[in-house]
Amino acid sequence: MKSVKIGPLTCRVAGNPEQAKLSFILCHGYGAPGTDLVPIADELISLENSLADSVAFLFPEAPHDLTEQGMPGGRAWWPINMMQLQELMQTNNFEELTESEPPGMAEARGLFQEFLCEYQSLSSCSPGEIVLGGFSQGAMLTTDIALRLSDSPAGLCIYSGSLICKKQWEELAPTRAGLPVVQAHGTMDPILPFSVAEQLRDLLKNAGLAVNFHAFPGMHTISWDALEMTIDMLNHLLAR
Questions:
Q1: Pairing between strand 9-14 and 155-159?
Q2: Which residue of 14, 119, 139, 141 pairs with 41 in a disulfide if CB–CB is 3.0 to 4.6 A?
Q3: What total number of domains does the chain contain?
Q4: pLDDT digits 0-9 by tens, 4-44
Q5: Is the dihedral of CA 174, 180, 186, 191 positive or negative?
Q6: What range does the domain containing 95 cover?
Q7: How many CB atoms lie within 10 A of CB 175?
Q8: Rounded distance between C-alpha atoms, residue 214 and residue 184, angstroms
Q9: pTM score, whole prediction
């Protein structure tokens, strides 16, 4: 595992992007360090040894440092008002979450697109050889990016994500008809409601995306079943 600067973002990289058949780019959630999801590479390889040679794993670090918010080492793709989010959970008033684009998301989108462009230039990797994914806030960002790219990525993994930017995503999603999607969400998630994950699933399915949805009896996390579903997706894409 090496740490490199790719465009504006620091990124941990496992494998050889220039030789791999696929690149799996996975974005961490709000408040986590940039290394938070790095162990997933070893976990996936332990389940499917062939991925070690065929897939490069990249873990970009979010741009915002949350030390001043009392989270030393924590990072964020954009600021979140956690108290406001908890109020929405308590009142079941989720329209504010699903309908709007969060302040600061446009900046995060621009930085990630710059990172992605630089990575493609360095690795000679096409969009069709890239799987995007993320956990929580990172899942929201990569879902947004996957829908907005000029060329479709190979796949999308949404771990405990949420529907946001609803009207924009409804307009964009039909351009990704057929895109393989792994989506997993805990039915007891206290951070991002399961019902909103279902709304996201339905939006993507109705637009023609090939969504493999997994509901698990858990909290705000990535389940083992979600990793096995991810391996199935990667193997299917590698066999094309």
A1: unpaired
A2: 14
A3: 1
A4: 999 999 999 999 998 999 999 999 999 999 999 999 999 99
A5: negative
A6: 2-238
A7: 14
A8: 5
A9: 0.95
